[in-house]
Amino acid sequence: MIKLSELSASTPLALYCAESEDLEIMTKEDFLKSDLFWVYFASRRNRISLVEQIYKQIDFYRVVEFICEDVMYDGCTEDVYANFKDSPEATAFIRSINEFFQCHPAYQEKEPVKIDVLPWGAPIFQQSEDAE
Fold first, then answer.
1. What is the pLDDT of residues 83-104, one digit of tens each?
2. For the purposes of burial, counting CB atoms within 10 Å of the CB of 12, is it exposed (0-12), middle (13-18) or buried (19 or more)?
3. pTM of the model
4. Residue 77: closest CA among 93, 101, 95, 59
């Protein structure tokens, strides 16, 4: 488990609240400045993890397949795709949709993060389970 103190201020984090089942994305810097720090610090049910942004890309073949499905003749998908896949209109459409997705990424939780530092930078000392 990676420690919060080891992350740069700009590292994006996924904050999952067990009670509300909300997932919030914010940087380490914003997390340390927010009231959410104390909510997550006080509860073992909530979790914090690294997060990866995922950018979707349109699959033009699947778009054509969806449009042709159940209403057109057999082979329609292949015919339409072959005629339009390299057209300027199809290229502009794909570029436009992909630009939209770049502005609206999805997020995937990765490695869990342990809170080992307070917002003002002081370390949190916890007794080791082995010390007993």
1. 888 899 999 999 999 998 888 8
2. middle
3. 0.65
4. 59
